[in-house]
């Protein structure tokens, strides 16, 4: 029988999920503003972009959106395969596996920072590379959040899922996980607002905010694992 997670560990995991939601909003805003109007977390948006053939520079948009979708899907599959032994949802993580997903995401985002800082993203091929790396990073974050979240139904990269869970709970008059879901939804636009400020004031630092938030989320997961083991 799985022992119930400690309350402090559960709270720490929720902090991590909220950070991941914030980071997703920041990452999507960075990609949209600086990487050719492509999303790295919102694949619904990319599917729509891939069909908007009358948009200026449609070919570049099409290549970017399809690249993001393929990278996101591939790393989603990889992440779920790597964590397939941990299918039972819980709000207290087995940090040795799920932290590795976040570490992988952090490494990919660090490469995005290097591509951006050294100016490689200004070339079309460099921009596509940055989109692919950032989408892969957000996919790993999505898997980590899915494995970390309990029955609260929090999704950190696609707000439609969280909004659906929220409205379902309201309709069924269930309060389980409502607060964390609502705050998670609000963290997405907050992350986008903060990233927009960064891009407007110090464009060179654009990809650094999502990376810093991912580091903080990984740290929270590690802390939660240690709290549970004590």
Automatic annotation (TrEMBL):
<feature type="transmembrane region" description="Helical">
    <location>
        <begin position="101"/>
        <end position="121"/>
    </location>
</feature>
<keyword id="KW-0472">Membrane</keyword>
<keyword id="KW-1133">Transmembrane helix</keyword>
<feature type="transmembrane region" description="Helical">
    <location>
        <begin position="127"/>
        <end position="145"/>
    </location>
</feature>
<protein>
    <submittedName>
        <fullName>Uncharacterized membrane protein YoaK, UPF0700 family</fullName>
    </submittedName>
</protein>
<feature type="transmembrane region" description="Helical">
    <location>
        <begin position="179"/>
        <end position="202"/>
    </location>
</feature>
<keyword id="KW-0812">Transmembrane</keyword>
<dbReference type="Pfam" id="PF06912">
    <property type="entry name" value="DUF1275"/>
</dbReference>
<feature type="transmembrane region" description="Helical">
    <location>
        <begin position="58"/>
        <end position="80"/>
    </location>
</feature>
<feature type="transmembrane region" description="Helical">
    <location>
        <begin position="208"/>
        <end position="227"/>
    </location>
</feature>
<dbReference type="InterPro" id="IPR010699">
    <property type="entry name" value="DUF1275"/>
</dbReference>
<feature type="transmembrane region" description="Helical">
    <location>
        <begin position="12"/>
        <end position="38"/>
    </location>
</feature>
């Amino acid at each position: 029988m799985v022992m119930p997670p400690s309350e402090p560990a559960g709270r720490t995991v929720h902090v991590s999920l909220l950070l991941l939601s914030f980071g997703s909003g920041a990452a999507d805003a960075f990609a949209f503003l600086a990487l050719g109007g492509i999303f790295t977390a919102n694949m619904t948006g990319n599917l729509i972009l891939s069909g908007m053939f009358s948009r200026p520079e449609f070919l570049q948009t099409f290549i970017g959106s399809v690249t993001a979708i393929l990278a996101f899907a591939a790393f989603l599959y990889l992440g779920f395969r790597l964590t397939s032994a941990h299918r039972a949802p819980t709000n207290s993580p087995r940090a040795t596996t799920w932290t590795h997903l976040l570490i992988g995401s952090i490494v990919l985002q660090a490469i995005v920072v290097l591509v951006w800082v050294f100016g490689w993203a200004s070339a079309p091929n460099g921009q596509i590379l940055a989109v692919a790396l950032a989408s892969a990073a957000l996919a790993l974050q999505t898997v980590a959040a899915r494995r970390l979240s309990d029955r609260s139904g929090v999704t950190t990269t696609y707000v439609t899922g969280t909004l659906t869970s929220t409205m379902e709970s309201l309709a069924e008059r269930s309060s389980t996980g409502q607060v964390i879901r609502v705050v998670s939804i609000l963290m997405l636009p907050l992350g986008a607002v903060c990233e927009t400020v960064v891009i407007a004031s110090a464009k060179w630092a654009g990809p650094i905010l999502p990376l810093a938030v991912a580091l903080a989320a990984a740290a929270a997961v590690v802390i939660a694992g240690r709290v549970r083991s004590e």
